[in-house]
Write a structure and sequence with these properties.
Number of helices: 15
Low-confidence stretches: 1-42, 251-272
Strand order of the largest sheet: 30-31-33-32-34-35-36-37
Largest sheet: 8 strands, mixed
Strand content: 25-35%
Length: 801
């Protein structure tokens, strides 16, 4: 609910980097060429009220033997020098943030805006149970609940008072990353994470029904460790589950090895640290079958990534009828996968190691397109695909037809590609399915016939996003949660039975308690900027009615632009607090690289086209200035993960265009990202410096840590900057942020030559026991975004109201 959680898609890597010092030096000369061709107009003087002299920043020694990676030592999170550097950066950040006058006020406003009941759409399982997550307001984590009767309020208007808390993650000291109940609703599996890490432990509870209206929860002894990027798929009888795991990480030893596998410093680094703080690559994923009541050591490995395919990954889903296991195998984050179907009925109890590879039917055995399971009637399967359809379509195939195996171009088209992106489709009872289309970055829900795709009805919805959906093949009704920029969310129920009208029935509405808040006083509009190459780029702009467009408004521009991820209109308490507290303007840009207009839009912002994303973001900033919304001294930019890369790259390329830049958990070293944790998966999006000279030069041209160019004193200013990370971020590891802040601060010291001259602040906000964003306790989230927006306000001269 607070901000937009930074998400680097999901996963996958390659090799190493410069093979000799001569190559490194040659490439280094290419890296540091002047960038005046970018049209930089230097900001002559420091504008920030939080300015400080660069000589006050922590000292970090550069390694002159590594011209492209002078702060390589910061890659070791366990070294005493790295720990000291982190501690010193935390002190600088806290001292700076204590000078932000709006810090306390922003915290209180965020508490007010978050202190309201909210929940997810109910997921029915069995005849009498429905599961959902809920938060009564300021709980640290969402509870996982089950209805005591009739489906989680499904027949009682969403009332929760009598429902049962199945898992209280706050009491357990962690967070629920995902969950799934067995088809009969009697067992529940949940992935439990601590400290913000992607590593999870899958735990189980039994829901014992003593009578029709009572449920008693019993914790089961089964525990599944070393789980990451997993699905949870129960078999039909609820006595086995399919999940993903990795080999246990050997963090300390792995870090110390060089590209040839030798210890870099000649010594063993010692025993493994706490999970989530390691940096070594995640390879060798396994798709595993666990029988309830047995040890994890007895689990059956259905498939594993090994040899030349050790970076591949697989996800498993069991069909609605429980007869088939549908597996998608991926290499990287591109929307493409191989498709394997295993007949579970045929296998019976004879499920043994490697059976997916030996007995599974490879319906698609290449990486040409993506195939997502929608529904099946026996051997007749319906899939969503982008095969020759960058905006997606639905196709149908009979698994028993040998001529169709690995010939997806011959599968029957059920629903043709339209002018808009088909995000997903879900089948209901009878000849009905629900389709979610993306129309200019807005969600549109349609009810169609499953048999032929015929449109039955389009639901009447405002500009917004579907944030959760629940519907089963055995039910005629479905639930979905819908958000807008100004409304925290309404869950609707729609019944499609018996030819009834598809009326939207309000099941549960989240309402803010803040008496000062009136959504009717806010305006959201969609405008379009024109990028450098003429491409139209949409933006959503939210502000208070009656605002004067005099070019002097505090404005926050948010972007992502990558991994086929779409930014749709959704509620953000932090952005709303910024609009209300500072009288600011909140802007979300839909950049190339995302999925807003399909795979062509995505490809136009990835690999060798990545510069298009930065050009789009810069064009959006210029358009806001030209229309009189703001000016450079009042404009802040913000993004997380891939969006953190976006913010840092644009700051390097056009420091004159922004007054403040905030980069959460960003990918900052584009020459070495693939070496750490799941970074190898991103090579499909960015390329890899080790693959070819062309990819190396493309990455080098925008890699944030390799393109920092602080102007000489009096010739210009970098904007104020806040870089954020957490010590348990094992998605985009903290070294990216540490190396960038070291690069910027060191260059500031060099150009100022020790003089006591105030500069715009550059700080690193580094948290303990937090990760990439998911699972962060509510109080820490409030503190984080209060710091972010108080920093923006303090740097840009905002007045807190």
């Amino acid at each position: 609910a607070l901000g937009r959680p930074p998400d680097l898609a999901t996963w996958h890597t390659l090799r190493w980097w410069p093979t000799s010092m001569s190559v490194a030096c040659r490439r280094a000369r290419v890296s540091f060429r002047p960038r005046r061709e970018l049209g930089m107009v230097p900001r002559v003087s420091c504008a920030s009220a939080l300015a400080r002299a660069p000589k006050e920043y922590p000292r970090i020694d550069a390694d002159e033997g590594r011209p492209l990676d002078p702060f390589h030592a910061l890659e070791d999170p366990y070294h005493a020098d790295t720990k000291a550097f982190v501690s010193q950066q935390q002190e600088v950040a806290e001292e700076t943030l204590n000078r932000c006058r709006a810090r306390g006020g922003m915290q209180e406003r965020l508490k007010q805006l978050l202190d309201h009941p909210r929940r997810s759409a109910p997921k029915r399982r069995g005849e009498k149970r429905a599961f959902y997550t809920r938060n009564r307001g300021l709980q640290a984590q969402d509870d996982l609940c089950v209805s005591r009767s009739g489906g989680g309020g499904c027949e009682s208007g969403g009332k929760e008072e009598e429902d049962l808390v199945v898992v209280d993650p706050t009491r357990l000291g962690g967070a629920i990353a995902s969950y799934e109940a067995s088809p009969d609703g009697r067992k529940l599996a949940y992935a439990f994470a601590k400290g913000g890490s992607d590593w999870c432990e899958v735990r189980f509870v039994q829901l014992n029904h003593e009578d029709e209206d009572e449920v008693h929860v019993e914790e089961l002894p089964d525990r599944l460790r070393y789980v990451k990027f997993t699905g949870l798929a129960w078999n039909l009888t609820g006595d086995a589950i399919v999940y993903n795991r990795f080999p246990p990480p050997n963090a300390r030893e792995e870090y110390a090895k060089d590209s040839d596998g030798h210890m870099e410093d000649g010594e063993d680094k010692g025993s493994n640290p706490e999970l989530g703080t390691e940096t070594n690559a995640n390879r060798g994923q396994q798709l595993v079958y666990h029988r309830m009541g047995t040890s994890q050591d007895e689990d059956v490995i259905l498939w594993k990534a090994e040899g030349e395919q050790e970076e591949w990954m697989a996800s498993g889903e069991i069909t609605d009828d429980g007869k088939y296991l549908v597996v998608g195998i991926t290499h990287g984050c591109d929307p493409v996968n191989r498709l394997v179907v295993l007949d579970l009925e045929e296998m019976g109890e004879n499920i043994k190691e490697g059976c997916l590879m030996k007995k599974g039917r490879y319906m698609v055995n290449n990486f040409d397109a993506q195939y997502d399971y929608v529904a099946n009637d026996g051997t007749i399967f319906t899939f969503k695909t982008n095969l020759n359809s960058p905006r997606y379509k639905l196709v149908r195939v009979d698994l028993s037809d040998e001529s169709k195996v690995n010939n997806p171009q011959d599968w029957m088209e059920v629903l043709s590609q339209s002018d808009h992106v088909l995000k997903w489709a879900a089948a209901l009872k009878g000849d009905v399915m629900v389709c979610d289309y993306l129309v200019d970055a807005k969600d549109v829900l349609q009810v169609r016939k499953l048999s032929n795709g015929e449109l039955l009805e389009e639901l009447d919805l405002p500009i917004g996003s579907v944030t959760s959906f629940s519907g089963r093949r055995e039910d005629s009704d479905f639930y979905f949660k819908f958000q807008t920029f100004t409304e925290p969310g309404t869950i609707y129920r729609v019944d499609t039975a018996g030819g009834r009208s598809k009326t939207l029935e309000v099941f549960h509405r989240s309402e803010l308690k803040d008496e000062k808040y009136d959504p009717d006083c806010l305006v959201t509009e969609q405008i379009f900027a024109t990028s450098k190459d003429g491409t139209r780029v949409p933006m959503f702009v939210t502000y208070e009615k009656g605002m004067k467009m005099d070019g002097n408004n505090l404005t926050m521009l948010y972007g992502y632009g990558g991994f086929n991820i779409s930014l749709t209109p959704s509620f953000s308490a932090s952005q709303l607090a910024f609009v209300l507290g500072f009288g600011g303007i909140a802007v979300t840009a839909n950049l190339r690289g995302g999925g807003e207009y399909g795979e062509e839009w995505h490809k136009a912002g990835s690999l060798k086209n990545k510069q298009n994303v930065f050009d789009d973001f810069i064009a959006c900033a210029k358009h806001l200035i030209q229309l009189g919304y703001t000016n450079p001294a009042k404009l802040a930019i913000q993004g997380g993960s891939n969006g953190g890369l976006l913010v840092a790259a644009c700051t390097n390329q056009r420091p004159d265009l922004f007054g403040c830049a905030v980069a959460h958990v960003g990918v900052m070293d584009m020459l070495r990202f693939h070496k750490f944790t799941i970074g190898h998966a991103w090579c499909s999006e960015y390329g890899c410096a080790d693959s070819s000279e062309e990819e190396y030069q493309n990455l080098l041209a925008y890699s944030p840590i390799h393109n920092v160019r602080i102007p000489e004193c009096g010739e210009g200013e970098y904007p104020s900057m806040m870089l954020l990370t957490g010590d348990h971020d094992d998605r985009v590891v903290p070294l990216h942020t540490l190396k960038l802040v070291a690069s910027i601060q060191s260059q500031m010291k060099q150009v100022d030559k020790g003089r006591d001259i105030p500069r715009n602040p550059v700080i690193a906000r580094i948290e303990s026991q937090t990760g990439h964003g998911a699972g962060k306790p509510t109080d820490k989230v409030i503190e984080q975004y209060a710091d972010v927006y108080a920093f923006i306000g303090g740097c840009l001269g905002g007045e807190w109201r």
